[in-house]
Amino acid sequence: MQKIALSLLTTLLAITAYNCQRDPISIPSDDSFNVIKPELHISVEKVSATKATVKAEITQPGNVNILGYGCVWDTDPAPTLVLSSKVETAGKPPKEFIFAVAGLLAETSYYMRVFLIFAKDTIYFDYPKFQTLAHWVKLPDYPGSAGNPAAFFINGTAYFGAGHASFAEFWALDINNGTWNAKADNLYTAGRADVAGFAINGTGYFGTGVNPGYQKAFYAYDTLTNAWSPSPDYGGEPRNSAIAFTIDSIAYVGVGQGASGDLNDFWAYNPRSKVWSEVEPLPTAGRLYANSFVINHKAYVGFGRKGDFFTFNDLWEFNPTPSQPGDPMWRKMKDGPPARWAGFGFSANGKGYIGGGGHSDFWEFDPSVPPNGAWQVLTYAPPGGERAYTISLSLGDRGMILGGSNSIDNSKDCWIFNP
């Protein structure tokens, strides 16, 4: 009888041990059990003035059932779920997970922790303190001689040349390390003012402008050979003060002023076929010194001046590939901030930004707000006060402005904008 009881006890213990091995996540979070808690590798990336990306990778899964996960942050050490800002997700996390942290303050130090929620407790994983960027970061001044140069941006480098002087100099600014380097002189556009510039697939282009008459010639710059060469002439009327932008490897150049007056036409350039083709004109008055920026394969065009006195504050969306055949390419958006001309405009992280043009304010446009987008004035205008004839570039997740003039002098200052 004792042998039978001992045999049953041995069998029961074996079954219990087998079940624990097969179902480790059922082990409660208690120090009395052999609990193996997860281990994480954490990084904070893409830190801007108001946003950051938190990445976490589970390097040791442990044997405890995870019910939820997320991250918390605060300006005080050791943030918690109760007292701090947080992003939280229910359920078991994947091996790698990412959180977008928003609403941060510029130039502020933050403590951040990733957390895992278990049945009986919550575990925090600390990350070293990080600091957000300033909205505007100063880079070395433009070393060129000409005022109001044209510009384009290729693979982390901004290029500047032409402008209000007889100089052929051409300069490149490495955005990441803030160094200027002289490049091959551009004799073609030397002294040509109000030139349009754009870049496609690693090649930069300068064209149109005035010197002394209206121009339509374009020239291409090869970054690999550091050399300029003629490109097909602009398809429309010779002009100055046009705007240029690219969408899906096609360049669009339009508006400006020509011999016939203020223009509203637009032309598309295909670098593969090397052909200019006319597209739908801006469906409103012609103008010069307008602004443009591109968001999600659509361009936004507006502001500028007609004649010597009338200025605009309108904004139009340009979609080169309408959803339905025959639909117009242009759509009226919400009117913008105070009217201006010779201002600056760029896009960053899905928003558009407008400033300058003789004003010291700074505005943000969100095209995703129905029905026609929304504007808001920002409190962090660029340093330097009022400025006009400022050069601007979109850098993907950031923007850039260079130089400009006011009632006192011309500037060559260079600033990077962090949203």
Question: What is the gist of this entry?
Answer:
The protein has 419 residues and is mainly beta. It contains one helix and 33 strands.
List keywords for this structure.
419 residues, mainly beta, four-stranded antiparallel beta sheet, 1 helix
Rg result: 29 Å
Envelope shape: elongated
Output the structural class.
mainly beta
Largest sheet: 4 strands, antiparallel
- Which residues form runs of ≥5 with pLDDT under 50? 1-32
Q: Report how far the terminal alpha carbons are from each other.
A: 80 Å
Helix and strand arrangement:
Layout: H1 2-22, E1 39-45, E2 52-60, E3 68-74, E4 85-90, E5 96-101, E6 109-117, E7 122-131, E8 136-139, E9 150-154, E10 157-161, E11 170-174, E12 179-183, E13 196-200, E14 203-207, E15 218-222, E16 227-231, E17 243-247, E18 250-258, E19 261-270, E20 275-279, E21 291-295, E22 298-302, E23 305-306, E24 310-311, E25 315-318, E26 330-332, E27 343-348, E28 351-356, E29 362-366, E30 374-377, E31 391-394, E32 399-405, E33 410-417
Structure overview:
With 419 residues, the chain is mainly beta. 5% of the residues lie in helices and 45% in strands. It has one helix and 33 strands. The chain has one helix at residues 2-22; strands spanning 39-45, 52-60, 68-74, 85-90, 96-101, 109-117, 122-131, 136-139, 150-154, 157-161, 170-174, 179-183, 196-200, 203-207, 218-222, 227-231, 243-247, 250-258, 261-270, 275-279, 291-295, 298-302, 305-306, 310-311, 315-318, 330-332, 343-348, 351-356, 362-366, 374-377, 391-394, 399-405, 410-417. The strands form nine sheets. A four-stranded antiparallel β-sheet has the order 4-3-6-7, with no helix packed on it. Strands 8-33-32-31 form a four-stranded antiparallel β-sheet, with no helix packed on it. Strand 10 (157-161) and strand 11 (170-174) form a beta hairpin. The protein starts with a helix and ends with a strand. Residues 1-32 have low confidence and may be disordered.
